[in-house]
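Human: I wish I could look at a protein chain and see how it folds. This is the protein in question:
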Amino acid sequence: MALIPKRALPTTLTAVAVAGALTLAGCSSSGTASSTDSGSSTDFGGVKLTVWNNIDYDPYQSLQEKYFADCATQLNIEVDNQTITGDYTSKLLQAASSKSLPDIALLSTDVQIPLLASQGVLSDLGPLGVTTDGLEDSVAALGQYEDTLYGLPVQVEDYALFYDKAAFEAAGITEPPATFEELEADARTLTQDGRYGVSFAGNAVDGAAPVYFLPFLLSAGGDPADPTSDGAVAAVDLYKTLVDDGSLSKEFVNWGWDATDQFTGGKAAITVTGPWQLVTPTDFDYGIAPFPTLTAGEEPKVGLLGYAYGVAAQSDENKAKAAAALVECRASEENQLETAVQGGYIPALTSAQEGFVEQVPGAAPFVDAVPTAVNTATLGTDWNTLQQQYVTAIQNATVNGVSAKDALAEAVKSQ
């Protein structure tokens, strides 16, 4: 399953990674891939390629090994598939600075692609024959940096509300909340001895809080780049109201990715989480719903993250073409669908998304949100500062009782 603490968390760069980026800025790329189309070759003469990824748990790890082994056989390629543990971003940067990047690497679309592409160490996949055919524009954009395709997305993540069906039935609630007002009312009704209405992430440490807060901001009409927007104020005020009502524990400021444990442990009736929850064993029946909006009838929106395969820039034309062909083979509809069903990821390909919903109907809210989802990577490094501002404002409003508007204004001034 997709264990969140192990995934490449959005915009969480360590000091080592930042230092590596500065070092990398002074390095030239190891070459430029050929601009000749890769053609339809399926035999690359036994060329040897190294592949890196950092998802070190099953079923993902075993599936990846199988996909690359099968594709390597089809293309007459010898592949060394390596799972890298530890600080993956820093290791990528260190490899880039020493001109020893692997031929292919699985990259987070929000941090690692922009960071490496901006330094000129990734190949432009277009001249290598790789296209984004079959991808929604929102998904294709995840693999781009400054309008150039540096990574082919294979899986994406967004978020939805999960709710305890039995708790809803016992409380006489027949439908999941569609607006902020309904969420506040339902959460009050659902709050009973030993159980809160909702459980959200609120700490400033592991990166979960801004990721789960972002859909509320977007669904309130807010602009992530503007913490003073009316939508941002409404979203922070939602958290404040839930805490003031006693529907959200004050302890939520200490919860990160583990906030979902309150829900799975029966201590909260509603939570926010991702598609990995679909493959996580749970002792009760739950429903999945889109995010509520500030105004009835509005379209909910979510943030979108993903993983994509990038190819190192290099002067060996045959190797670059082989790497591109291997990436395309790995990204097949069949492979993406299998990963989704077993591992709890949303496939990048629209056709595979449709197959995912057919096999796992609960995935529909995640898939439906993809076309209009927002990629915060377009904000560049500004998102590092912005997300801290949002978390600071949430904590100030809920812990200290400051109004949402003032809490946001103070957070902007302090950062």
User: Anything to note?
Assistant: The CA atoms of residues 123 and 313 lie 4 Å apart. The first helix runs from residue 15 to 25.
